[in-house]
Amino acid sequence: MKTGIVSMAQVARYDRMDAGFHLAVNEVADQLPALEARLSVDQALALVSAQDTATLQHIAPLLRGSGATRKALLTAAKEYPFIACALLSKNGVAV
C-alpha cells in the first residue's frame, strides 16, 4: 500500500479528492516542469494518443470514476496531458 501527503493547495489546484490521483501526481511531480517546457499540450496529447490501450492503463489513476476504456483514458489525458506523459515515462514509455 502506498501512502503520501496531499496538500490543500494540490486538492484545490486539481479539484480532486481521490487519493490515487494525488499519489500518482506526487510520483511524477518533479518531471512536470521539464515536460511542460519541452512539449506543447498538443504534442503531449499526440504522444499519449499514440499508445495502445494496454499501455494507457498506466494513466488509469487520472480517471474520474471507473471504466478504463481507451476513450476514458484519453479523456483523462486531455484533462491532464503532462501528468499523463510523466506517468507513461515513469513506466518505461519513451515520451
Helix proportion of residues, in percent?
55-70%
SS content category: mainly alpha
Shape: globular
Sheet with the most strands?
Answer: none
Number of domains: 1
**Rounded Rg:** 13 Å
How widely separated are the two ends?
A: 28 Å
User: Helix-strand pattern, N to C?
Assistant: HHHHHHH
In the predicted model, the low-confidence regions spanning at least 5 consecutive residues are none
**How many helices?**
7
Rounded average pLDDT: 91
Describe this structure in words.
With 95 residues, this protein is mainly α. The chain has one domain. The chain is 60% helix and 0% strand. The chain contains seven helices and no strands. Helix 2 crosses helix 7. The longest helix has 10 residues, at 19-28. The chain is globular and about 35 Å long. The model has no long low-confidence stretch (mean pLDDT 91).
Quick structural overview:
The chain has seven helices and no strands. The mean pLDDT is 91. By secondary structure, the chain is mostly helical.
Write the layout of secondary structure elements.
Elements lengths: L7 H7 L4 H10 L3 H7 L2 H9 L3 H4 L13 H10 L1 H10 L5
Helix pairs in contact: 2-7, 4-7, 6-7
Fill in the keyword field for this structure.
single chain; about 100 residues; mainly alpha
